[in-house]
Design brief:
Structural class: alpha+beta
Low-confidence stretches: 1-6, 351-442, 643-792
Subcellular location: Nucleus
Mean pLDDT: 72
Pfam family, one: HATPase_c_3
CATH architecture of one domain: 2-Layer Sandwich
GO molecular function: ATP binding; ATP hydrolysis activity; ATP-dependent DNA damage sensor activity; mismatched DNA binding
Strand content: 15-25%
Strand order of the largest sheet: 5-4-3-6-2-1-7-8
CATH topology of one domain: Heat Shock Protein 90
Helix content: 40-55%
Protein name: DNA mismatch repair protein-MLH1 family
Number of strands: 23
Shape: elongated
CATH superfamily of one domain: Histidine kinase-like ATPase, C-terminal domain
Main location: nucleus
Number of helices: 31
Bound molecules: adenosine-5'-triphosphate, magnesium ion
Radius of gyration: 33 Å
C-alpha cells in the first residue's frame, strides 16, 4: 500500500475485504512461477526430464516472448490426461504431502503448465509409446479449449508457448531487450546440458538453421562444458569431489569440476544442482569465490560446476515459487566442507598447473577443434569476451604478424608430471638431496657453477642489497623503470636489468635441478630460428651476404641438437632428435617468460653460447636464459591515448623513457649530477643493443669485454664504480639518516620465509609464498577465444591486459622474489640499474613533525 492509499484508508476507515476472482488469483500465482521467458522454459525442460527424455530441442522467437517451443522424446502424456493437463494442482508426480520428503522428480506441484496458460497461449502435441497417432490440444487459463485433435506425431511431447504475458501488459513491457531474454534462455539450457549427461540439448532461434547450443547424448560432461562454455573453460577444469556422512555435522556428496588458477572470467559461473535441481545458493558461491579471490587477479572470477546430493529428508524443495532455491540442513557445515575441498584442489593444482597459449608453428598440425559450431555463440561468447588474449603468450610464426595472432599452446608441468626415465632420475636426485641436504647434486658440484656463484657472492653491493631487501614499491614510473622508496630516498629501478640479474642468479642456483615448462606441441627449432632471422632482417641486422636464412637456421638447430643432452641435463631445455624444443626451465616459480621472445632465445642459444669451455658455456647459457626470462616490457605498445609517442618495442620504450626520465628532475636528487648521467650511460647501452647485429645478444659480449661475457654492464662498469664499486649513484653520503618511516619496507620479505635456494622449486617456502599470487600472471590465461578477441579488433584491450599482467609481475612476482633471492651486483650501482632520484629527508622531517 502506498502512502496516499494508506492516508486515504486512515481517513475513510478500513476498506472491505473481498475474495479475489479466481482468474486474478491464478494470474498472480502464475506471475510468481513464470517470471520471465527463461523461467517458463526451465519448467518445460524439467517436465521433459521428468518424462525421461533423452533429447530436448528448443526453438525460440523474440527472446521467448513470441514463442517458446520445446520438443522431447520422453514418455508423452496419456490422451485421457489431456483435459486436466493444465489445471492448477494436477500432477502425475506427487500424491501425498509426505511424498515431498522423498520426491525424485523435478516437478511436484502441478502448477507450471497451469501458470503458463494464465499468461500465455499453450498448445501440446503428444504421443505415448504404442499409439498410432498423437493428439494436439490447446489451453487457456488452465482449461482445455475444444477437444484434443488426433494428429501425426512421434513418441514424446511438443509444447508451444506463444505470446507470453500477452495479458500482463506491465510485465511484457518490462522485457524490452529480447536479446537479453534469449541469453537467459541459453544460460538455463547450458546449465541443464552440463548437468544432464546422456541427454542431448539444442536451442536455436526460430527460422535459423544453426543451433546456438547443441550437445550430444553421448558426450561426456567435460565435452558438454566445452561445447557450451567454450574450450577456455573446459581445458582448465579440475575434477572435484567431497562428502561428509556425519549426521551431527552434515551429510552430503558433492562431485563436479572447478576452474584452475589459470582460468579467470569477469563473472563467476556457478552451475549448481542440488539433488538434480538447478538451484542458486549465494552463500556457497560466495564461499567459493573467496577461495579464488586469494589466487586470481582482482575482479577475476572462476567457473564452478557442482552437483550436490543430500538425503531427500534433509532438503526442503518447496521454499520458492520458481523452485530455484532450496533449503537444507546444516548448510554452514556443508559450505565449509566444500570450501575446504575447493581450496585443497586449487593448492594441489597450483603445483601442476597448465599454461596454454595458442600456437601453430608452421608445419605443426593444429589440434582438431572439438567444439561444435554452436559453441561459438551464446554462453561461450560470454566466456570468450572475458578471456582476453595475452598476446605475449602467442608464439609468432611470422615476423609480420602482430603479436598474439597465432594458434599455440604451451603446457607447463612441474615435477609431478614428469614422465621420462630421465625425469625419474631427476626425481630420485631431488629426493636424495631432500633426505640429506648436505649432499649437493652432481650438477651443482661442478666447479664452474660454484665459481660462477662465488663470483655473484663476491660482486654483491652491500648498499644495494639493503635497498633491494627493504624497499617499498611505489609504482611504475614508465615502461621500464619502477619507482622505489627506501627510507627517505626515492630510486628509479630498471626492472629489465634487475629481473635479468635475478634470473641469471636463479639459473645458477637451480642449475641441474629445474622443473620445466612444457611446450605442447613442441616448437621446431629451425622454424623458431627462421622467425628470429626474419626479425633480424626486418631490423636490418641480417644481410643476404650473411648466408641464406634457411641454411643458418638449419645449422644452428643441428648444433643445438648436438648439445641436447647437456641442455636437458643441466638446464631442462629438452630438444629431440628432430630439433623440436619440448621444454624450458622453470627459473622462477609461477613465472613463464614472454614466449614472443622464444625465437630470439633460440637464436641466442644457437649463435651466442660459448660451447667450448665449461664455465663460459654455463655462463653464456645462463645469460641467454636470463635475457629471455627477464621481465621485459611487452612487445605490444602500451595503449595510452595521452601519449604522443608510441612506446613500440621494449627497447624503444626503454630508450624513450631514458631520454626524458620522468622523475629525475634536477635538484631533487641527492646528487643531481649522477642520476641522469647514469641513465644516459644506460640509454646508450640499450640503444647499442639495437645497433648490434646480426643477433642483438652479441652486444653484451662486446660491452662486457673478454672476461665478463654474460653481462653487458660487466667488468668495465664494475671497475668504473667508485668506492671499490660500492657507490650508489646519487646516494651521496646521506645514507643511514632516518631509520624508520614510510620508506621502511621489507614487509613482503618478512611474510615469506626464505629457504635454501638450491632446494627444489616447488618446495621453496619463499617462492611458494608467491606462488598463489603468481596465477595473476595474466600471460597464462588465453585460448582460441583470445585469437578471436584479437581478430575482433579488441587489440587495445588485449594490449592493456598484457601490460597489466607485466606490471603485476613486476610488483608481485619480481620484487618479492628479488627481496628473497637477488644479490645485487656492484656494477648495478653505476650502470643505471638503480638510480637515486630524490632524498626526502627534509620533506620527511616536515611530515614527521606534522
Ligand atoms: N513434457 C512432458 N512429457 C510428459 N508429461 C508431461 C510433460 N509436461 C508435463 N507433463 C505432465 O503434465 C503434468 C503437469 O505438469 P506441470 O509442470 O504443470 O506440473 P508438475 O511437473 O507435475 O509439477 P510442477 O508444477 O512442480 O512442475 C505433469 O505432472 C506431467 O504428468
Ligand atoms: Mg513441471
Amino acid at each position: 500500500m502506498d502512502t496516499t492509499q494508506g492516508q486515504q484508508a486512515g481517513r475513510t476507515g478500513p476498506a472491505p475485504i473481498r475474495r479475489l476472482d479466481q482468474e486474478v488469483v491464478n494470474r498472480i500465482a502464475a506471475g510468481e512461477v513464470i517470471q520471465r521467458p527463461s523461467s517458463a522454459l526451465k519448467e518445460l525442460i524439467e517436465n521433459s526430464l521428468d518424462a525421461g527424455a533423452a533429447a530436448i530441442n528448443v526453438v525460440i522467437k523474440d527472446g521467448g516472448l513470441k514463442m517458446i517451443q520445446i520438443t522431447d522424446n520422453g514418455h508423452g502424456i496419456r490422451p485421457a490426461d489431456l483435459p486436466i493437463l493444465c489445471e492448477r494442482h494436477t500432477t502425475s508426480k506427487l500424491k501425498e504431502f509426505e511424498d515431498l520428503q522423498s520426491i525424485s522428480t523435478l516437478g511436484f506441484r502441478g502448477e507450471a503448465l497451469a501458470s503458463i496458460t494464465f499468461v500465455a497461449h499453450l498448445s501440446v502435441v503428444t504421443m505415448t509409446a504404442g499409439q498410432t497417432h498423437g493428439y494436439k490440444a490447446t489451453y487457456k487459463d488452465g482449461v482445455l479449449e475444444g477437444e484434443p485433435k488426433a494428429c501425426a506425431a512421434v513418441k514424446g511431447t511438443q509444447i508451444t508457448v506463444e505470446n507470453l504475458f500477452y495479458n500482463v501488459t506491465a510485465r511484457r513491457k518490462a522485457f524490452k531487450n529480447v536479446g537479453e531474454e534469449y541469453s537467459r534462455i541459453l544460460d538455463v539450457i547450458s546449465r541443464f546440458a552440463v548437468h544432464n549427461e546422456g541427454v542431448s540439448f539444442s536451442c536455436k532461434k526460430h527460422g535459423e538453421n544453426r543451433a546456438d547450443i547443441h550437445t550430444l547424448a553421448a558426450s561426456s560432461r567435460s565435452e558438454n562444458i566445452r561445447s557450451v562454455y567454450g574450450s577456455s573453460v573446459a581445458r582448465e577444469l579440475i575434477p572435484i569431489e567431497t562428502s561428509d556422512d556425519d549426521p551431527a555435522r552434515s551429510r552430503f556428496k558433492m562431485g563436479g569440476c572447478i576452474s584452475s588458477a589459470n582460468y579467470s572470467a569477469k563473472k563467476t559461473i556457478m552451475v549448481l544442482f542440488i539433488n538434480n535441481r538447478l538451484v542458486d545458493c549465494s552463500p556457497l558461491k560466495k564461499a567459493c569465490e573467496a577461495v579464488y579471490a586469494a589466487i586470481l587477479p582482482k575482479a577475476s572470477k572462476p567457473f564452478l560446476y557442482m552437483s550436490i546430493t543430500l538425503p531427500p529428508e534433509d532438503v526442503d524443495v518447496n521454499v520458492h515459487p520458481t523452485k530455484r532455491e532450496v533449503s537444507f540442513l546444516n548448510q554452514e557445515a556443508l559450505i565449509e566442507a566444500i570450501q575446504k575441498a575447493v581450496e585443497q584442489k586449487l593448492l594441489e593444482s597450483n603445483t601442476s598447473r597448465t599454461y596454454y597459449t595458442q600456437s601453430l608453428l608452421p608445419g605443426v598440425a593444429a589440434p582438431a577443434p572439438k567444439s561444435p559450431a554452436g559453441a561459438d555463440e551464446g554462453p561461450s561468447q560470454a566466456v570468450a569476451a572475458t578471456q582476453k588474449a595475452h598476446p605475449r603468450n602467442m608464439v609468432r610464426t611470422d615476423v609480420l604478424q602482430p603479436v598474439g595472432q597465432l594458434d599455440a599452446y604451451v603446457t607447463k608441468r612441474l615435477a609431478s608430471a614428469r614422465e621420462s626415465p630421465d625425469d625419474l632420475a631427476a626425481i630420485r636426485r631431488t629426493v636424495r638431496q631432500r633426505r640429506n641436504p648436505a649432499i649437493a647434486s652432481e650438477a651443482s658440484e661442478l666447479t664452474s657453477i660454484q665459481e660462477l656463484l662465488e663470483e655473484v657472492n663476491a660482486g654483491v653491493h652491500q648498499g644495494l642489497s639493503e635497498i633491494v631487501r627493504s624497499n617499498t614499491f611505489v609504482g611504475m614510473a614508465d615502461d621500464t623503470f619502477a619507482l622505489l622508496q627506501h627510507k627517505t630516498k626515492l630510486f628509479l629501478a630498471n626492472t629489465v636489468k634487475l629481473s635479468k640479474e635475478l634470473m641469471y642468479q636463479q639459473v645458477l642456483r637451480r642449475f641441474g635441478q629445474f622443473n620445466c615448462i612444457r611446450l605442447t606441441p613442441p616448437a621446431p627449432l629451425d622454424q623458431l630460428l627462421l622467425i628470429a632471422l626474419d626479425e633480424e632482417e626486418a631490423l636490418g641486422r641480417w644481410q643476404p651476404n650473411d648466408g641464406p636464412k634457411e641454411e643458418i637456421a638449419k645449422v644452428l638447430s643441428q648444433l643445438l641438437v648436438l648439445k641436447a643432452e647437456m641442455l636437458r641435463e643441466y638446464f631442462r631445455i629438452e630438444i629431440d632428435a628432430s630439433g623440436a624444443l619440448h621444454t624450458l626451465p622453470l627459473v622462477l616459480d609461477q613465472y613463464s617468460p614472454d614466449l614472443d621472445r622464444l625465437p630470439q632465445f633460440a637464436l641466442r642459444l644457437g649463435n651466442d653460447v660459448e660451447w667450448d669451455t665449461e664455465k663460459e658455456c654455463f655462463q653464456t647459457l645462463a645469460a641467454a636464459i636470463a635475457e629471455f626470462y627477464a621481465i621485459h616490457p611487452p612487445l605490444v605498445p602500451r595503449p595510452d591515448p595521452f601519449r604522443t609517442k608510441s612506446a613500440g618495442k621494449s627497447e624503444r620504450g626503454a630508450a624513450d623513457s631514458l631520454e626524458s626520465p620522468p622523475l629525475a628532475e634536477p635538484g631533487t636528487a641527492g646528487n643531481p649530477e649522477e642520476g641522469p648521467e647514469a641513465l644516459d650511460e644506460m640509454s646508450g647501452h640499450e640503444r647499442h643493443q639495437h645497433a648490434a647485429g646480426p643477433c642483438h645478444c652479441g652486444d653484451e659480449r662486446e660491452e662486457s669485454g673478454g672476461g665478463e661475457k654474460r653481462r653487458g654492464n660487466g667488468a668495465s662498469s664494475r671497475q668504473a664504480a667508485g668506492n671499490g664499486g660500492e657507490g650508489i649513484p646519487g646516494e651521496g653520503t646521506s645514507g643511514g639518516g632516518v631509520e624508520s618511516g614510510p620508506g621502511r619496507g621489507g614487509g613482503d620479505a618478512a611474510s615469506v620465509s626464505e629457504k635454501e635456494p638450491l632446494e627444489d622449486g616447488n618446495e621453496r617456502g619463499g617462492e611458494a609464498g608467491l606462488a598463489l599470487d603468481a596465477g595473476r600472471n595474466g600471460s597464462e590465461r588465453n585460448g582460441t577465444e583470445m585469437c578471436r578477441a584479437e581478430t575482433e579488433g579488441d587489440d587495445e584491450a588485449a594490449a592493456e591486459a598484457v601490460w597489466a599482467a607485466r606490471d603485476w609481475n613486476v610488483q608481485h612476482l619480481m620484487f618479492p622474489a628479488m627481496r628473497l633471492f637477488l644479490k645485487p651486483q656492484k656494477f648495478m650501482a653505476t650502470d643505471g640499474t638503480m638510480v637515486q632520484i630524490a632524498s626526502l629527508e627534509n620533506l620527511y622531517k616536515i611530515f614527521e613533525r606534522c
